[in-house]
Every structure is written in structure tokens, then in C-alpha cells.
Amino acid sequence: MHLKSITVDFAKWDVDKDKGSIALNYSGDQLYLTVGNGGVTSSSALTLTTSPTSPWDFKTKPGFIMWRGSSLVIDVQGRSSTGIVWLYDFNGSPAQQWAFIQYANALAEMESEKAHSHV
What we know:
alpha+beta; Trefoil (Acidic Fibroblast Growth Factor, subunit A); two-stranded antiparallel ribbon; two-stranded antiparallel sheet; 10 strands; 29% strand; globular
């Protein structure tokens, strides 16, 4: 998944929309995205855990990743490629919009952008 309209820096994640889980691909599905120890609130930092978790809702608001049963979504602070990724109250901004693409398609898109940038 990657944040729309920022860069073509693709994170390698395995997203299971049916189960509601997000696992780091290179971990052999052993690291899952969740909220840190501070609890689930607006501005909660995201972290990785070894416990399989499935708190994510991909269906209520397509294109957004919501914390199940809440109005909180994954957001990039400041909509910057260096911004903190955290949970934040849903506001529909571009910093909260995510596109899911197949890894092979992501590689093809990166190569295409590289080719066009050298013209």
C-alpha cells in the first residue's frame, strides 16, 4: 500500500481485507501493524507486533484504513513522505487516502516513472 499522490515509495505489506490484517511482507507475515501501548486514541502511533491482529476495516470507507469500530483512520501527519504514520480522526484528507496495488504493478509503475523522469 502507499499514500496516494505523494511519491512512488511503496511499502511492501500483505493486506488481508477480509480478515482486517496488515502484515509486513518481508517478515514472512510475522509482524503485524497495530497501535502502540498507549491505547487507541487520535494521534496514537502505529507499531509492529508479533501477535496476529485484525483491527482494520477496509470496507466502511473504501480507500481509507479505519480502526474497526471507530472513526479513526491511518493518517500521515503533515501529508509528508517523512511524516509520522498514526491514527487520526477521519477527515477525508489526502493524508488519509490509501491505494492498494499488486506488487508487480507497483514495480512497473516505478520503472515507468523512472523512464519518464530521464526524458
